[in-house]
Known about the structure:
- The protein has 400 residues and is mainly alpha-helical.
- It is 77% helix and 0% strand.
- The chain has 14 helices and no strands.
- It has helices spanning 2-20, 33-39, 45-49, 54-73, 75-95, 100-128, 131-162, 175-184, 211-240, 246-274, 278-294, 299-326, 333-360, 366-399.
- Helix 4 packs antiparallel against helix 5 (75-95), helix 9 (211-240) packs antiparallel against helix 10 (246-274) and helix 11 (278-294) packs antiparallel against helix 14 (366-399).
Amino acid sequence: MEIMKKLNKTALKWTILxxxxxxxxxxxxxxxxxAISADMPEVPVSIVQTITSFPSFVMIxxxxxxxxxSEKFGKKRVLLFGEVSILAAGILGYLLHxxxxxxxxxxxxxxxxxxxxxxxxxxxxxxxxxxxxxxxxMGIQSVFTNIGAMYLxxxxxxxxxxxxxxxxxxxxxxxxxxxxxxLFIPADRGVSGAQSAAGETKKVRVxxxxxxxxxxxxxxxxxxxxxxxHSANIAFFVTEKNLGTAATVGTIMALCTIGGMAGGxxxxxxxxxxxTYTFSVSYVLLILGFVLTIxxxxxxxxxxxxxxxxxxxxxxxxxxxxxxxxxxxVEATTMACSVGHIGGQIGTFCSSLVMTSITGxxxxxxxxxxxxxxxxxxxxxxxxxxxxxxxxxxxxxKAN
Length: 400
């Protein structure tokens, strides 16, 4: 009996790790953007670029709905529905791709899939493993998330070289966690309205969140607007500079993901040195990545720039969650972290719409877009450092 229990938990762990391969799926179509734009010249570039960030926008609303649906139908059913949605988006995107409207529908379907697997997978993990086990699995989960991102961009780029709609077939990988989920995720029926946990818990309202919560949420929103410029424009930059094909773009995005892994590994050391000023330091890293890309006279410099850009986000996002946790009461941390998450998703969605539209008033050059974004990053780094200093001074005065 004990052996069977261990086998079931091991199988469930690998199922959770397989699901993690899908968690950065929105970037999977980045290698095809230039080809899509070339096939649909009547569509503004900013609208084409937003295809990769539209799933993030949809996720904001779906994540909230998924929690409610899980209570009614059970986490397993909702999670499997999400995986089917991703699988369907891959098949339909490959078959039906003649208009930008169709591409946005499939992007929305991806957002539904990602938005349902994230909260339900976390719930399944929490229900089936103790605190020590969860910590170990979450560490490995992060590695699998980045492996999945590398697969989606690298293989997606290789497929897009043949024909850009083939890029959608990378999402067939959702079949693996779908089958594993059917076999190994324990069935649950959801929670009826009559059931409730024993004991009273403090009901957290939006008004209970600290003022700093909204500042950190805004920081994340602004950073993601700037960060998103790299992935949304790299396919156009490679074409503009004659540096390669869609496969090259896939390699660049894969290197960006490796940078993200390196950033995550070094975050705790960076945070020890800079504390909340890490928000500003992340911009410095992002600027360096853009400068290397702008000045690139070879693909090698673009690849190095991609690694540095990838590192920057793995300093900002953990700093956001840490700052939100530290600035709120324990009971309010979940809601506070949601503010950071939603700020980041909205920033990702708005990135192309904002930055491409603004830079388009002056130049259509992708290089100019990178230069403009680097300047904006420099301004934001200074402004946020000033705000952080003021917040720290106010907190110190209040403590005294």
